[in-house]
Amino acid sequence: MFFLTKKNYIHNVEKKLLFLLFLSSFIGYTQKNDVQVIITGRAQKDKVLLRWDINSPVEWQKANKKGYLITSTTLIKDGNIIKKPEKVVLTPKPLVPDDLDSWIGYVQKDNNAAIVAQSIYGESFEVSVAKEGDLSRIVNRADELNQRY
Q1: How would you classify the pairing of strands 37-43 and 80-89?
Q2: Cβ within 8 Å of residue 125, ≥6 positions away
Q3: Overall average pLDDT of the 32-61 stretch
Q4: What's the confidence (pLDDT) of residue 61?
Q5: Which of 26, 47, 64, 83 has the smallest number of Cβ neighbours within 10 A?
Q6: CA 73 to CA 97: how far, in whole Å?
Q7: What angle do CA 122, 147, 37 make, to 5 degrees?
Q8: Are 125 and 118 in contact (CB under 8 A)?
Q9: Which pLDDT value is given to residue 93?
């Protein structure tokens, strides 16, 4: 016959918690990293400013070529929640970065624009200078896409 003592009870709870902790580590490991577009907005008197980014360097590179479509979705009208949200496409053509020639004016005014243009259009992108044969040079080349992003 088995008697449930305080010691047995605590031991059982500890085993269950340890198992749950072990299981949760695998659940977190097996989850896919879904690509997301993160967006922030700020309303001004006569316009809304949007800023967005993608959480994946590979998808960022693809999006720079394919562009972004921006839609506006109205969820609340006159203080009431709309049953069927109204969607309006604000960009009939996808937004893509300006072509390389258009960046010249920006680059002359702002050094950061040169970095952005290089990250989008440059053949290589190194953020640090390393001597030939240095381990850091190898790491930089291997991680070039992440650096561009």
Answers
A1: unpaired
A2: 118, 119, 144, 147, 148
A3: 86
A4: 87
A5: 83
A6: 24
A7: 100
A8: yes
A9: 94
Q: What is the DSSP letter of 78?
A: T
Tokens representing 113 are 């624009």
Q: Please give the structure tokens belonging to residue 57.
A: 């360097």
DSSP letters spanning 94-135: -B-PPPGGGHHHHHHH-HHHHHHHHHHH-S---SS---TT-H
Residues 6 or more apart whose CB falls under 8 angstroms from that of 76 comprise 82
For 89-142, how does the pLDDT look when each residue is reduced to its tens digit (9 = 90+)? Answer: 999 999 999 998 998 998 889 888 888 888 888 876 655 555 555 666 666 666
Distance CA 136, CA 126 (A): 11
Q: Which two tokens stand for residue 91?
A: 């960009």
What pLDDT, on a 0 to 100 scale, did the predictor assign at position 141? 61
Strand 80-89 versus strand 48-54 pairing type: unpaired
CA distances from 3 to 6, 10, 11 (A): 10, 13, 13
Looking at per-residue confidence, does 92 or 149 come out higher?
A: 92
Residue corresponding to tokens 């580590």: 25
